Amino acid sequence: MNHVVLDAGHGGKDPGAIGSFSKEKDIALAVTLKVRDILKRESPQLKTTLTRDSDFFVELKGRHAIANKANADLFVSIHINSTAGTTTRVQAGTKKVKKGKKWTTIPVYKTIHNRSTKTSGTETYVLGLTRNDQKEKAIGEYGETVAEEPGLLDENDPTTAILIAQYSQAFLSRSVTLGSKVQQNFAKAGRNNLGVKQKSLEVLAGSAMPGVLIELGFINNQEEEAYMNSEAGQQALANAIATAILDYKKEVEKK
Ligand SMILES: [Zn+2]
Q1: Can you tell me the distance from the alpha carbon of 154 to that of 245, in angstroms, rounded to the nearest whole number?
Q2: What is the pLDDT of residues 139-149, one digit of tens each?
Q3: Considering the entire predicted model, what is its pTM?
Q4: Nearest-CA neighbor of 36 among 201, 244, 238?
Q5: What is the pLDDT of residue 143?
Q6: Where are the chain's structural domains?
């Protein structure tokens, strides 16, 4: 393994999830840049490519296209979580209205949107099986990662189809390996570990390599928003991710 693509979620016109004073796109980029810096320092021979290195918009398809064209070995997407807010209607007072000739008192309601949450912690996604077809297609198209001789893969050839399916399975199991390491390192750093989960995600389905999507914490949790915006918090998060990537690298190179 010698090339990892780091994908800072959202960017430009797409802010991602919004907290009380910060945006997902900015935290994701800050942590991604720190992960890159740590990897460069700790493992200079490992090539890193970013899908964005400043505040601009990249389409989802553009993100895995970058990884596929770079012929990378690993795709790591970095995001921030958020929960849906709650809306409640509460009585805010009363008012007098005239009905016919009589005045009556009626209650007045107001709607309160509560965006904040007590939910906290980190979770890492690997590709759900519902997107397996797309994954296999990507592996077929960007066969360099699979075949010794690029361009020789034919999806319609049954032998190749089996080979591609095997790669798709192997990539999923490698993605779980990396995801577990990421979560373990978050837990070591004192974060609440919400585990490794499967989800149907375009950025993971379209890339012809193992990959994970990391949710660093909940932006609408006051404490986590402050942590993810702090220098120490970002450094701890980046350290956990970089350590997991380097540990994964060691493990796959042993095999
Ligand atoms: Zn996101």
Answers
A1: 32
A2: 877 755 444 44
A3: 0.86
A4: 238
A5: 55
A6: 3-82+118-254, 83-116
Q: Is the dihedral of CA 143, 149, 155, 159 positive or negative?
A: negative
Cα 199 to middle of ligand 1, angstroms: 13
Position 150 scores a pLDDT of: 46
CA 165 to ligand 1 center in whole angstroms: 28
51 C-alpha to center of ligand 1: Å?
A: 14
Q: Which CATH number is 3-82+118-254's, of 3.40.30.10, 3.40.50.12780, 3.40.50.360, 3.40.630.40?
A: 3.40.630.40
Residues 174-193 pLDDT 10s = 999 999 999 999 999 999 99
Sheet (strand 74-81) strand order: 47-50, 3-8, 74-81, 211-218, 122-127, 193-199
Q: 114 CA distance to ligand 1 centroid (A)?
A: 20
User: Where in the chain does DSSP place strands (E)?
Assistant: 3-8, 47-50, 74-81, 86-99, 102-114, 122-127, 193-199, 211-218
22 vs 228: CA distance, rounded Å: 10
- Report the alpha-carbon distance of residue 195 to residue 200 in Å, rounded: 16
